[in-house]
Amino acid sequence: MVKGVNFVDLRDAGDPVEMAAFYGSEGADEVVFLDINATLEGRKTTIDMAARAAEQLQIPYAVGGGFKDLIDMSEMIAAGANKISVNSAAVESPELLSAMAARFGTKAVVCAIDVTQATPGVDKWHVLTRGGKTNTGLDVIAWAEEAAKRGAGEILLTSLDRDGVKDGYDLALTRAVARAVDIPVTASGGVGKIEHFAEGILEGEADAVLAASVFHFGELRIREVKEYLAAQGISVKLD
Question: Is 60 buried (19+), middle (13-18) or exposed (0-12) by CB count in 10 A?
Answer without folding.
Answer: middle
